[in-house]
Design goal:
Blueprint (H helix, E strand, L loop, with lengths): L3 E6 L6 H14 L5 E5 L6 H4 L8 H8 L9 H12 L1 E3 L2 E5 L10 H15 L4 E5 L5 H5 L4 E9 L3 H11 L8 E12 L5 H13 L4 E6 L2 H8 L12 H14 L2
Parallel strand pairs: 1-5, 1-6, 2-4, 2-5, 6-7, 7-8
Antiparallel strand pairs: 3-4
Helix pairs in contact: 1-10, 3-4, 4-5, 7-8
């Protein structure tokens, strides 16, 4: 099976991880499984919103590759074994965390092994969801050259929307094909100001970045995070969840 790739992008603090967690909830509840969720943010916390523990990251595996490999095992076999160990399994989806960015030294070989292993893993999943930092480098390292849906997340600020426009243009230099992309503006006040709507419309037109939808701030999500509860357990009738599901419906089943 060839998986569909969904990637999140946006500046820090816009809510990419929140929307990633809600999208995992959507995909699993709708039966679009199995899903591989990749937390590609160096400040990894997607697992916390899903109520999961991560013990091994790709970053730590890269460091191990700089040392001794067990006898009678090639480096690509070792990488594949460790990546499988790094997968945290749950109902309908697996989670893999990339961990801290590379330190000093060349990790070209490690990235090559990761790309090979991801090629092997990909056929096991219906969807691969990548929660990115602002950049797109992790997509190249994982050899994900085609993105079916790029979700560019912004907060309701002029700087957030400007950053979203710039991010939407980053896929060209990395030679990544994006089939569909859209802008999702998070934590929008009700009602949104005319100035905010003007900024959004300007970004949509000038960056050729269709508007996926607006999401409200949510006290329910804040409360769930404070108690350490999983977003997977949120009621579907929570306004933020309901609106997020409607947005996801528009490009998953629309």
């Amino acid at each position: 099976m060839t998986p569909k790739i969904i990637a999140m992008a946006g500046k820090g603090g816009t809510g990419k991880t929140t929307i990633s967690a809600l999208l995992i909830k959507y995909l699993t509840e709708k039966g679009f499984t199995p899903v591989l969720a990749v937390d590609a943010d160096s400040n990894a916390n997607l697992n916390e919103l899903l109520g999961m523990r991560v013990d091994l990251t790709i970053g730590s595996i890269r460091k191990e590759l700089k040392g001794d490999i067990p006898p009678n095992m090639s480096r690509d076999q070792f990488m594949e074994m460790k990546v499988h160990q790094a997968l945290v399994e749950s109902t309908g989806f697996d989670l893999m965390a990339m961990g801290q960015p590379d330190g000093p030294g060349c990790y070209c070989a490690a990235n090559q092994y990761l790309a090979m292993t991801m090629d092997h893993l990909a056929g096991n999943y219906r969807y691969i969801l990548v929660d990115n930092e602002a950049g797109m480098e992790h997509l190249s390292r994982m050899n994900l050259r085609t993105i079916d849906h790029l979700l560019v997340i912004s907060d309701p600020s002029a700087r957030g929307i400007l950053t979203a426009r710039r991010i939407a243009e980053l896929t060209g230099p990395l030679a990544i094909e994006v089939k569909h992309r859209c802008l999702i503006v998070n934590r929008v006040p009700d009602p949104p100001s005319p100035e905010l709507i003007d900024k959004i419309n300007q970004a949509v037109i000038e960056a050729d970045l269709p508007l996926g939808g607006l999401l409200p701030a949510s006290s329910e999500l804040v409360a769930q995070e404070i108690i350490g509860g999983s977003y997977l357990e949120l009621d579907r009738e929570v306004p933020m969840v309901k609106q997020a599901f409607a947005i996801f419906d528009s490009f998953i089943t629309g």
